[in-house]
User: Fold these one by one.
Assistant:
Number 1:
Amino acid sequence: MRIAVTGASGLIGSALVRSLVTDGHDVVTLVRRPPDGPGEVRWDPAAGTVDTGGLAGCEAVVHLAGAGVGDRRWTEARKKVLRDSRVLGTAAIARAAASLAPAPRVLLCGSAIGYYGDTGDDWVDEDSPAGQGFLADLVQEWEAAADPARAAGIRTVCARTGLVVARNGGAWGRLFPIFQAGLGGRLGDGRQFWSFIALHDEIAALRYALDTPALSGPVNLTAPEPLTNREVTAAMGRVLHRPTLATVPASVLRLALGEFAGDVLGSQRVRPRRLLEAGFTFAHPGIDAAIAAALSEV
């Protein structure tokens, strides 16, 4: 299959591309610089332009590009960057996919469980309403930006990803050195639920969504049993054989992270109902296995 991918240099995108290429798929990556060869296609998400000629023959488009949510404090300028990188980029890709003839069979867009906001101890799934706050509002706009593809009859999946357990990137990648140094500990009171997913399962779930016609709309990419931050902290110590006595008070997080601290301390107990109903099987459903798999990453 010929598949176009944005965000191919990121944690998830690079792992997905490796998986697809290993299995013999023809992968085209979208880049913002002059292409180096026929395997790259130029696009400019801010300007809303895509070289659609380079996408000819693509049966699937995977859109994962977007600025890092936790990379910097959320100033108003940074919020605009986060919004524009997702909403404008998704709209550009959706319009490009809709303009192709023949159109791709599927558009798979990255999304996030931030859609649900802080849900406390309550379970949520794909039918639950949107929450409140900047991230919840952003995800709603982000997913709606794919409407041109939906209107063109393209099966559109929004992969609402949780916290990806990976050693070499993402938020979890920053945790590993801290815990390996014996400085890890709970955040705040530690009672907030973390809906995690092993990187291996994230890639497998994305590929399952590409290949499963019954899946469309929002699909949660999280392990079946979320754990509290306190439980995750204990698991990190257990697998890494390190103490986890440190704690980071909520007040310190708010001082260091500003508005983003509310999402770090917030609780999201997410069930991947649609994946499970479609028959997807997790290779690393438990946190210990997910952490161990991350440690084995190349």
Number 2:
Amino acid sequence: MRPTWTGVYPAVTTKFKENGDLDLPAFLTNIEFQIESGVSGIVLGGSLGESSTLNSNEKIVLVKALQPFREKVSVIMNIAESSTVRAVEAAKQAESSGADGLMLLPPLLYKADASETVEYFKTVAAATTLPILLYNNPVDYKIEITVPMFEQLQTVANIEAVKESTRDLSNITRMRNAFGDRFKIMGGVDTLCLESLLLGGDGLVAGLVCAFPKETVVLFELAKAGKIEEAVLLYRWFMPLFEMDIHSKLVQYIKLCEVYTGVGTEYVRAPRKMISGDERKTIVQTIELALANRPKL
């Protein structure tokens, strides 16, 4: 299914067995739960999907595992590479393996300047016919995709959308003022997701949706229907969970949430370790409190 860049797109976690191998049955259980809950697309191999620990073949395995679901949701593969050559190769592999779109980060490791970053995006886009969602997250990845850079990219037809994770909400308005509806805007930070939608965002690429997809979809629908009071109440319930999305251990925290909602496993790949001790107690308390007060939808 071709992505519309509207609605809710979970940045899904990658499920592993205790020995570190991919756990495809557990992965597909979560995917089915997401689809049943009404999400619009699936983003594979992002930061939350432990991209840095996956090799290129494993990402393709995940793409191929989702082929039976492509009539219901868009399958989006993340590209996070440090060289243009590898990014181009990844884009071609994704397209030939059945991905419906790409999420594309700026170059990793080297802090490319504006000209280098724009050229990187253009080169990757030229190597594929797939629609592309650019990931704008200077907080974590040190490169901001600015309005002047988007001006140079607006003629690249298959660069269609941006995952807006600058943490600067006014950036949504800057983009709308500069480009109207040329680029779809997806809120990319859970703790700002409602504000992003109310300021004109088209959808969400979300984290806690991995464990709470129904609540996330309802939050999106309430915001878009203008039911602000209801949306705010749901948002307030969600916020202690959303805080996990902006922590350095978001992978471990959200995977633990998935365990508590029955749709995931807790295993991670090194150097990550499953949380323990007082840290675990704190996160468990947050999850249990949220579940005890889970709203009726």
Number 3:
Amino acid sequence: MLMVISPAKTLDYQTPPAVNRYSQPDLLDHSAELIRVLRQKSPLDIAKLMNISDALATLNVGRYADWQPSFTPDNAKQAVYAFMGDVYEGLDGASLSEHAIDYLQAHLRILSGLYGVLRPLDLMQAYRLEMGTRLANSRGKNLYEFWGEIVTGKLNEQLETLGQRTLVNLASDEYFKSVKPKALNAAIVTPVFQDKKNGQYKIISFYAKRARGLMARWAAERGVTNPEQLRGFDSEGYAFDAAASSELSWVFRREHA
């Protein structure tokens, strides 16, 4: 079983990582090509392209200028510890055992606009580049065209290594659009997390994002290898609802957040 999640906009490069072990991203040549495109942009260009403040644009122009492909613990940090946000609060990688981190290194991938596909312990330098950004490049008018089938190919490699034929989609729609389902050598299971509000079950963004991280953590703590085991997910009050689910869309509901 292989799981995918989205990255986060918020980064933490101040807190020391929980483990010293690290790996290198596999697709850095592609990342370097994107950096070359981004370095041609002014802070004003970046602000308009990404719809962010002038201060954030200036910060990221500086990041692009400083970016260099020789990643070390001195200039980069493992992705699972660098990303912050709702998904990563649910995952809480800093409190996981080394055994659980090893599981995530094998079974979890982070989709990224700049890095394509990251393993949890892959070093990465700070950046801002969402997958939905319409950044014109030598391969097309946006990042989906830039990555083409590269992301899918990398996921297929890992699925083959694991001997698995199921991918669990815990990513947002924006990021999962970088995956080509027809070219993926796996069935795609998508967990859906709903909370009861005003008498109805609804997807509430904050809770759903957190639940994605919680499920990845739950799997890591138990060493889950068969996706069917995920139906036992019960963190923070969620429970599998067979009646509301379909073969590839698994609904998890809870009464109270």
Number 4:
Amino acid sequence: MSVAAALRDAAARLDAISGTPRLDAELLLAHALGIGRNELLMRQRDLAVPPGFEALLERRLKGEPIAYIIGVRDFWTISLAVTPDVLIPRPDSESLIEAAVDHFGAAAPTRILDLGTGSGALLLAALSQWPQARGVGVDLSPAALAVAKGNARRLELDDRADFRLGDWAEGVDGPFDLILINPPYIARDAALSGDVLHEPESALFAGAEGLDDYRRIIPMLPRLLAQGGMAAIEIGYDQCDSVSGLLANQGFSVSVRRDLAGHDRCLVAVPVRSV
């Protein structure tokens, strides 16, 4: 079977389980060939379908996320290694970096904190955006920290990124100009489908309302955030009012940013200036 025919067949088979069947097929075949997707598309007539492609396709047909199969996910301007030990970085989370870019404008944060760093996506994206910045990434999972440290080395950002095992910001000293937070925020009894069924539960669920970790983290922010700085906090689509209230109670001014689908996704918290 030619590469073109293999891609058509794979996309047709994936259509029932994926919203991007053709893209999935291309990524899997490129991975099986050990080349990039762009090279695959340019060289289709020169290539043969490798024996390992069918096994990768079967894994995807069983619901395994593409990112875990190929081990890589693009985020912001960087590419990250991902494993089942970490959440898969998603475009919606880029709204936190976009909010920070807008907040600092021509200026730049110099000290960054990433709580619940996982793969290191947010911290490493921020460090790539601001070459003079240094940052700390905290996670409770040793396995996740191993992934983050590996990503920092591959991106040659390890000299500016300090990854630490910890329980949110317990024992962390500020102040930080930018705090990035993507905690678990799914309610325990929420019905889930798709990629999240394969992701680590400890990074997804946060009590009956999905608010448990916000309630722990937000009271820590006043001692951590520098005047003139900001915290960018990812939320579930229906959590804007609840989390905004928690932030307001700690003396923050709050605004909301929406994701690509138009859902509330990022809260921007800034300290209210003292008079």
